[in-house]
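User: Can you predict the 3D structure of ABC-type transport system substrate-binding protein? Sequence below.
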Amino acid sequence: MTVLTGRHRLARKGVLALVAAMLLLAAMTLMAQPSTAAGAEAAPSPASGVGAAAWTPTVSPLFTASSQPAEYVFRNQTDAQRSYYLNNCPLRYLCISVGQGDGLHTVFQLYYCDGRTLGNFIDAGGATNHQTGGVRAFFVSNDGNTKGWIPADNHPYKFNPYPYDILWPCDHV
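Assistant: Sure. Here are the predicted structure tokens for ABC-type transport system substrate-binding protein:
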């Protein structure tokens, strides 16, 4: 039996063979693509190490090498590295960590009391205040309201930085 398709005549077996070949091609293409389980995230490529940061947290100003003592920023830290920095915050420093949105963290070691503008402090964070004399660090919103503070007791604390826009590393209020 033949099927008429416009002006061309095709054998029924030929049409079935063509459809089967197209389905097989589609199935092979899908099998060749990497897949993840529903709701799971794909693992980063071993060649790249880790995925690109979703955002880059900043503290401004940050008094670096030209200042003595200097302040430091450590980016792309794992959970273990972040915990190390928070549990070993240097004497007279305020150590702040915040997520980057890619599973990694940025850690800041701040020494000076100047008010700081926080940029991209979006994800949950942690802080250890190892300053002396009971000096507290304050998180403040743009409207000047104090949103939280970290006591100078050299213990790590968790915080949710939104809507903290300003950080006063030393008593300000």
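Residues 2-30 form one domain. The first strand starts at residue 2 and ends at 5.
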